[in-house]
Amino acid sequence: MGLENKSVAIVGAGVSGLAACKHLLERGCRPVVFEAGDAVGGVWPNAMEGTRLQAPRHMYRYSDFPWPDSVTEMFPNQRQVADYLHAYARRFGVLDCVRLGHRVTSMDYVGVAEEEVVAWEQWAGCGEAFGSGDGEWRLTVADAEGHTEVHMLDFVILCTGRFSNYPSIPKFPPGRGPEAFDGKVIHSMDYSKMGSEKAKEMIKDKCVTVVGYGNSALDIANECATINGTEKPCTMVVRTKQWIIPNFYAWGINISNFYLTRFAELLIHKPGEGFLLSILATVLTPLRLMISKFAESYYSIPMKKHEMVPDHSFFEGMVGCMLSTTPKDHYKNLEEGIIVIKKSKTFGFCKEGVLVEGESTLVKSDIVIFGTGFNGDENIKDMFISKYFHAIVVGSTSTTTPLYRSSLC
């Protein structure tokens, strides 16, 4: 079926949204891309200045658009990634399709009764992406000034990602939340949006406490250490230990060859896998354990000094996306006391700072920054008016075919 006369919307102009738009343009369809932010590239245009890729450069690229020769680092920085994505969009004419500052506030499938939709065994009863032509998607879109408009479309591609707009904030007992604190409390998302110079000015000469031990938390703590040094050490409250690595070389061997290839898919059991794949994953279990122990023997050396080795295996950390690459001087900053780690599952706020369970003294703070991640499914959960589609998108942990990292794209 030709796409020339089909109306398609793409929600989000990040890595997936840009590729989806380029794919459609090549097939004669001119989609409209709604991007809530002020630039294409997803989280990268507003990421912190010190943020780098978590995957090697050659594994984070479009197959038809190589990195420029000027980018030689294994882990390109924030500016390089943002420029690369913008260059991709410009090269393939995607920029002309993007409407920046436009957020999709709701979407609904109209023209077909919901009872009929529920009864379908295949989409539209025939399995065709564009259906029989009876139904269409109704999107309500708001611009930066709050003005809304309605679009009727044949197809919608959701590329909203996991790392924007809906921060994950820990819950606290009454009287122990941020309201009890006299200082400033923000999330890493807001810190990034401030811009580099304004963010650095905010933390300068301040006692900063960072909650979390993932990518954003590590980057913010490193920035605080660089700006304030030993005069105002940065405290990290770590609730869950995670594997952190400086690079992908363990004892001189590139472990990405074991983990970031199709071969790695054979090492794990998957939902809905067949008999042969199940047997293969079981037979390869000793090899999986051996590779994991090999990596752990190297990466755990500096982590043991600070009692930060996690309970789960390195393999679990890799396949579960529970692994971060460390900023260059992270362990050096720990040794020099520029960054101080407090390990506890529970903490709360008081007037002067943070109370960490198990610690006899409070952590005096001027600013507390949550590097606690995002609620990825919130991006799309409330977008659907229909409870039926809402349930499909949110899904459950027991679904036979779960969404990849809980996302549509």
From TrEMBL:
Q: Which enzyme class, named as a word?
A: oxidoreductase
Which coenzyme or cofactor does it need?
FAD
List its EC numbers: 1.-.-.-
Query: InterPro entries of this UniProt entry?
Result: FAD/NAD-bd_sf (IPR036188), Flavin_mOase (IPR000960), Flavin_mOase-like (IPR020946), FMO-like (IPR050346)
Q: Which UniProt keywords apply?
A: FAD, Flavoprotein, Monooxygenase, NADP, Oxidoreductase
Gene Ontology MF terms in the entry? flavin adenine dinucleotide binding; N,N-dimethylaniline monooxygenase activity; NADP binding
Where does the source fall among the domains of life?
Eukaryota
UniProt lists the family membership as follows: Belongs to the FMO family.
The protein's name is Flavin-containing monooxygenase
Q: Gene name, please? A: LOC125518593
